[in-house]
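note to self: dont lose this again. the chain is below, predicted strucutre after it. 233 aa total, dont forget to put it in the shared folder this time
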Amino acid sequence: MSTAHAEKACLFAVDNRADKLDFLFNPTSYSVSKAATWKRSTAKGNKKASPPEFTGTDPASLQMELLFDRWETLGGDVSGDVGKLFGWLQPTPPSHAANKPQPPILGFEWGRKHPLSWFTGFLKSVNAKYTMFRQDGTPTRATASITLEEVPSDAKGQLQNPTSGGAGGHRTHVMTAGDSLQSLAYAEFGDATLWRRIALLNDIDDPLRVPTGRTLIIGRADDDLEPASNGSG
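---
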């Protein structure tokens, strides 16, 4: 009899999957907020309020509290875990060098069936509290309250993956270690949620098991969603 194992949540940099923070414990709760913007036109002498007019929506925010506990680990130290969060508050080195500082774009992932997989955004705030220490002052337990702000779907990121011309006028991409369909969609279209288009175009059933070395057809964001085979398995 097989035993189901818990999917571990994580945060990772979209442009570099190896830059990753695996959660020691999955969140026990989180909150998501999103607001719509409406305006009412006013005219002198109006006796009734005019109907509201929709002007857009603000980016969604994701808030959660993370627990880091390495007390049972020999020499356990949670400062590295918390330090990675604070590091993601800094602009990416390439954008800083170009005098156009931009935050790293992060993906929050928690199993394929979780409603927030994928949430893509930048880390807006981190509030860490250290609660347990060894005798030498090494922190072994901490909680961190974080807020991620959604990256709008029309945002143009700095991320670029090598692509080349392909069959039928479509570009192609060879999957390398650390690549995912979501990171590829964000790099190509500026929207990680468009990974499904790439999956359907390449007849991919399991987006988490795309082998390294496979050549994928990229297509365009406005292409019709029709599966196509690129001859790779």
